[in-house]
Write a structure and sequence with these properties.
The complex is a heterodimer of chains A (603) and B (207). Chain A is α+β, with helices and mostly antiparallel strands and 603 residues long. Helices cover 58% and strands 17% of the residues of chain A. In chain A, the strands form 4 sheets. In chain A, strands 4-3-7-6-5 form a 5-stranded antiparallel beta sheet, sandwiched between helices. In chain A, strands 9-11-12-14-13 form a 5-stranded mixed beta sheet. In chain A, helix 6 runs antiparallel to helix 7 and helix 12 (456-466) crosses helix 14. The longest helix of chain A has 56 residues, at 355-410. Chain B has 207 residues and is an alpha/beta fold. Chain B folds into 2 domains: 6-130, 3-Layer(aba) Sandwich (Rossmann fold); 142-200, Winged helix-like DNA-binding domain superfamily/Winged helix DNA-binding domain (Arc Repressor Mutant, subunit A). Chain B is built from 9 helices and 5 strands; from the N terminus they run E-H-E-H-E-H-E-H-E-H-H-H-H-H. Classes of the chains: A alpha+beta (603), B alpha/beta (207). At the A-B interface, helix 10, helix 11 and helix 13 of A face helix 1 of B.
């Protein structure tokens, strides 16, 4: 078996197979120009291999000349195809270099056709049979034509072009392609150029075997191309996978949207609805529908505010009436969150029908109001009874004093000083009674609290004046802590004073058994939050263990009293939007506090 | 030294105390004022007969509490309640515990004064009764144990023979004890002795 025939025919058929494969690739995808160029290159390589095999077996010089012509044509074509491949594959060649190589190559081809016998040899002396690696092959014996240099120069320029293109591709980031394709082409081009020169100048006695070098290039490139095809296959698979995933997610989202029990909608920042699980009857209306269209005009500002809050703070909750296509409306509770879709802020919102709860809430509010009215009536009766008691005291004082005065006047010599004292006391008691009546009237007349600006200090001072006798009798040491600058409150003065009176009286009673410890009553007020806090602190017997129920109606620790005092006080403070609470002191006694807002939120 | 009858005012309302004192002084009473029950208890006891005009609803010890305390210590002072906010259960309790009257503020001078006078009369009766009982008790102290036993049986209506058999003595000895008891207790008849024993609360003491 002649291995030369095996190698060269093998090279030919391998090249042809590769050419056929990539021709097929190109037919399938007409834009794969690199594949077409590769196909050409492989086909020409096959042609070259065929010519070389023929030259090795030629016996006649004329025959050799004809083969050489074909051979040169193949070399020309393979060079062009290589440039084309590099051009399309690496995509970074300089066009002028490409044109230069093509020009030189074409010139070499033309020279080959024009000069006789060809551009390789100026004269052919004869054909020699030599033994090449144990096989007899034909080599040409002749004088090399200097014009061969044109071809060689064109190969060098080609090498330069390849180096340049490879470098540019490498710099552009296509490291692997550039290294494999570029460096192998450069290597094989230089190698075949060297081999050709050595053979032609007779330095080495061997046949021309350019096709094998090109076959190397073709092999590397085929490897590259199939790598690319594998890679794109993988990419395509990934893409398919991604699409399938997306589809699944999309289906899931759809299921969520359609299956959501309440409302679910997606809208842009401009308020355009993108998705909405309860679509309007006519889908075309849905295009560019604004969320606002589903709400009443008077709710629009509240809606906008909540939506803006969602975009600025990330989420919002609100309750509004949702208007249906038939014009009816149901109360919905909405919860919205902001999400980014395609880098643009969107809003996803859910809405739950809370009309039942809302109705229940209204019912509850009604019940509460009724209860409040009942307790108000109870409070009123308790208040009136306590005020009746209070009015009896001054009346008793007046009566007894007047009767004492009558007795004085019955005396032969009435004591003028005594009479004067008596009258003074009658006047004082009368004023006190009038004050009680004024309070009584203000309580009985009340529907809503009568709010007027009032200075916290004047509240405390009034109460201290009203309770002067009680305080004097009790012997308690009273201290007052009122800051200089306090804002005025918007409050109903008399009930609030009544609360202070109740608290102070409670404190005095709590301190009644203090004995040698002495009684200390501290009244203070201070600005706190957006309001004023009043405190009544005693050092008395303190609260019972669990102090919560002291605010319950009809609870009392006192033998006389209905146990409504604190309840009423709490009602009054709550009517002002304030809070009344008690706490045990660190040492002895109790502090009662109430906080009144600067202006109560009246409805 | 001053023998004018004494009234004690107890009320937490200072101005009312002042007015009532004026009124009652003009009426010729001797008046003492206290602003709380505790204040009154801390002070020296006024001489009897006397009448307390007592407010019911006061911080600390209430009027009813004070009444209970005074009854417990065997005081002979009468009590007239004067309250601004009295109800029926409260007044019933007060009257049952021996109050003379239960008045509400504002009170007319006539009503108050007549109640006080009633109270003073009651107080002096109580005082008298107390004196007598005290004397009887002193007499009782002079009896020997045996004589006291005989007194108890006699006032229960037992005949001498029965008493003798109960005590393991002869009838003659009982007769001697009995006549000594009559002498010591200064009783002129069996009927008188029974009354004395009742006032001293002896009859019911079953051994």
């Amino acid at each position: 078996m002649n291995w030369v025939i095996v190698v060269w025919t093998g090279a030919t058929s391998a090249s042809l197979i590769l050419a056929a494969i990539h021709l097929f690739v190109w037919i399938r995808n007409r834009k794969a120009w690199a594949s077409l160029m590769f196909c050409l290159m492989a086909a020409c390589t096959a042609g070259m291999a065929g010519c070389e095999l023929a030259m090795m077996r030629v016996t006649d010089v004329d025959q050799l000349g004809a083969i050489l012509q074909w051979y040169n044509l193949s070399r020309w074509a393979v060079t062009l195809a290589l440039i084309g491949f590099i051009h399309f594959y690496l995509g970074s060649g300089r066009p002028w270099l490409e044109l230069t190589v093509i020009g030189l190559r074409t010139l070499a081809l033309l020279l080959n056709l024009l000069v006789s016998p060809n551009a390789f040899y100026s004269s052919i002396d004869g054909l020699n049979r030599i033994i090449f690696f144990g096989q007899a092959v034909t080599v040409v014996e002749g004088i090399p034509n200097p014009l061969i240099l044109v071809g060689q120069v064109s190969l060098l320029v080609l090498a330069a072009y390849l180096v340049d293109t490879t470098w540019r591709a490498y710099s552009a980031g296509a490291y692997n392609r550039a290294l494999r394709v570029g460096s192998s082409s450069v290597f094989f081009v230089l190698a075949l150029s060297l081999q050709t020169m050595l053979v032609l100048w007779g330095v080495v006695e061997a046949p021309i075997m350019t096709s094998l070098f090109f076959l190397g290039i073709v092999g590397v490139m085929a490897f590259e191309l199939s790598e690319d095809m594998l890679r794109s296959r993988r990419l395509a698979e990934n893409l398919q996978q991604r699409e399938a995933d997306l589809l699944r997610e999309r289906k899931l989202t759809d299921a969520v949207f359609q299956g959501a029990p309440g409302l679910l909608f997606l809208q842009s920042q401009e308020g355009i609805i993108r998705r909405w699980n309860k679509r309007p009857a006519n889908p075309s209306e849905f295009i560019d529908t604004k969320i606002h269209d589903f709400f009443r005009k008077e709710d629009h500002s509240a809606l906008s505010e909540s939506l803006e809050k969602t975009f600025s703070e990330g989420s919002a909750n609100f309750e509004l009436d949702l208007v249906h296509s038939d014009g009816s409306a149901t109360r919905h509770f909405f919860s919205t969150v902001q999400i980014e879709i395609g880098d643009k802020p969107h809003l996803i919102g859910i809405g739950i029908d809370v009309s039942d709860e809302h109705a229940l809430g209204l019912e509850l509010a009604l019940q509460k109001e009724k209860l409040a009215r009942v307790s108000q009536i109870a409070s009123m009766s308790e208040l009136s009874s306590s005020l009746a008691h209070e009015i009896n005291q001054p009346l008793a004082i007046i009566l007894s004093n007047a009767e004492a005065a009558q007795r004085q006047l019955d005396l032969p010599v009435p004591n003028q000083n005594e009479l004067r004292e008596i009258l003074k006391d009658i006047v004082a008691a009368d004023i006190r009674a009038a004050d009680v009546i004024r309070r009584l009237r203000s309580i009985l007349q009340r529907g809503q609290p009568v709010l007027k600006p009032v200075a916290p200090s004047s509240l405390l001072n009034n109460v201290l004046r009203l309770l002067k006798t009680d305080l004097d009798t009790s012997g308690a040491l009273v201290s007052k802590k009122i800051p200089k600058r306090l804002p005025n409150l918007l409050a109903d003065q008399i009930p609030v004073e009544q609360v202070l009176i109740n608290l102070i009286k409670n404190a005095l009673e709590a301190m009644h058994e203090n004995g040698t410890r002495g009684k200390s009553l501290i009244l203070s007020c201070a600005a706190e939050g957006s309001g004023v806090r009043f405190s009544v602190r005693d050092n008395g017997c303190g609260l019972p263990e669990s102090g919560d129920w002291i605010f319950e109606a009809f609870h009392t620790t006192k033998p006389s009293g209905l146990g409504l005092g604190l309840k009423i006080s709490q009602t009054i403070i709550q009517a002002h939007g304030g809070r009344l609470w008690a706490e045990a002191n660190k040492g002895r006694g109790t502090s009662f506090h109430f906080h009144l807002p600067l202006r109560p939120e009246t409805t | 030294m001053n023998e004018s009858p004494s009234v004690i005012l107890i009320d937490d309302e200072n101005d009312l105390l002042k007015a009532l004192r004026r009124l009652l002084k003009a009426e010729g009473f001797q008046v003492a004022c206290h602003t709380s029950a505790a204040d009154f208890l801390a002070a020296a006891r006024p001489p009897s007969p006397g009448c307390i005009v007592l407010d019911e609803s006061m911080p600390g010890m209430t009027g009813l509490d004070l009444q209970r305390e005074l009854v417990a210590e065997g005081s002979t002072l009468a009590i007239v309640f004067l309250t601004a906010r009295g109800d029926i259960p409260m007044s019933v309790r007060a009257m049952k515990a021996g109050a003379v009257d239960f008045l509400t503020k504002p009170v007319k001078d006539k009503d108050l004064i007549s109640s006080i006078r009633t109270g003073l009369k009651k107080s002096s009766e109580l005082e008298l009764n107390k004196k007598e009982v005290d004397e009887l008790r002193q007499r009782l102290e002079t009896l020997t144990d045996r004589e006291r036993e005989v007194l108890r049986f006699v006032t229960q209506g037992l005949p001498n023979k029965k008493i003798a058999s109960l005590l393991g003595l002869v009838e003659q000895t009982i007769k001697v004890h009995r006549s000594r008891v009559m002498t010591k207790m200064r009783a002129e008849s069996l009927a008188q002795l029974v009354v004395v024993a009742e006032r001293l609360g002896i009859t019911n003491q079953e051994s």
